[in-house]
Amino acid sequence: MDLELLRPLYDVTGPVVSVHLDTSREDQDADHRLAVVWRTLRRELEERGVAEATLAALDSGVGGTPHVVGPQGESLFACQGRLLAAFTLSRPPARNRAVVQPLADPLETVLDLDHQLPYVMVAVDREGADIDAYAAGAFDPATSRSFSGSTLHITRVRAGGPSQASYHRRSVNVWTENAAAAAAEIAEACEAVAADLVFVGGDPKAAAILHDQLTERRPGVEVVEVSGGRGGEDAIAVLRSAVDEAVATASSRSHAAAVAEYRSALAQNLAVHGIPAVSTALAEGRVATLLLAADRSDDPRQWAADANPLLVASAAEALQDAAAVEALAAPLLLRAATMGGARFSEIPAGTADDGVAAVLRFAAP
User: Fold this and answer.
1) Which of 364, 347, 216, 337 is nearest to 282 (CA)?
2) Separation CA 281–CA 159 (nearest Å)
3) Is there a contact between 19 and 101 (Cβ–Cβ < 8 Å)?
4) Are 142 and 120 in contact (CB under 8 A)?
5) Of 186, 254, 262, 272, which is most buried with the most CB atoms under 10 A?
6) Whole-model pTM above 0.90?
7) What CA–CA distance (Å, rounded) separates 258 from 364?
8) What structural domains does the chain harbor?
9) What Å distances lie between residue 224 and 69, 185, 189, 239, CA to CA?
């Protein structure tokens, strides 16, 4: 995943409050339960000296996505009276908690978002298409489009006669014209959320023509046909369920590919593993992708330079920075990777020493 969305968390000076909440809405008491949890955490933050302006900024963000029923979570980050970012998560955090430390603690956020992918969902028929573009991890579409083309001669005639073939050709031509226009809209939707994954449900013939039109406009896009379509609420519900399942499958494929890429790069001396080696590569700007295992229960504390966030070391003396900050390794490595323009992927436990690895842009000189 692209770590650029974390950058606002690091463009600040001073302690950052990181809040991770279970915002699931599976019963009628959900809103009350969330209010109680946040009130308790807010009181704890007050007792730890967090300014009222910062707490008020967090108040404005707490709530998740109220209209989405089911399990979900939320990560909020605030500093000096500003809400830096708020992320809705696909699953609740391990526990409700609030952390105050010199830098943000977005590990749970990143691990969740890393399992989400930007995609476009299309419900298509022979008249047009409904097109929703979703950013990674989003419950609600970033953009929605509804395209309806000409409906003239959409239905093939069944009667015989000399005009039948021309009507059939006209019907196919209209389907093609509609698909071409819809494909242009889908390509724009892909561009809006940086998606190369499109799920299409609906009329099989319209979907097939749309597939051909879209791959011409956006080379490299993966078009996946799924169940459901444009035929009312039931068809849309089937489409939504099919897309959720397909996104999970695509995410698993993506993570397997990341591990395969790491092992291949390791054999070519274009990957390193273990906190010391990865820290060195980050400091040298050589990391293309940071890889972390989700279980950080044995994470050691490390130090990072305040003036140069790319520098991470096991002792403050090694940094020669009077303003160096101490934290667990994962948040420091995530900050260094973000500021160094690296990407991120979760890896299975046991893949690398310390559960930390990196694929490199280039080998050490």
Assistant:
1) 337
2) 72
3) no
4) no
5) 186
6) no
7) 21
8) 1-113 (3.30.960), 119-252 (3.30.420.60), 268-365 (3.30.1330.30)
9) 26, 17, 16, 12
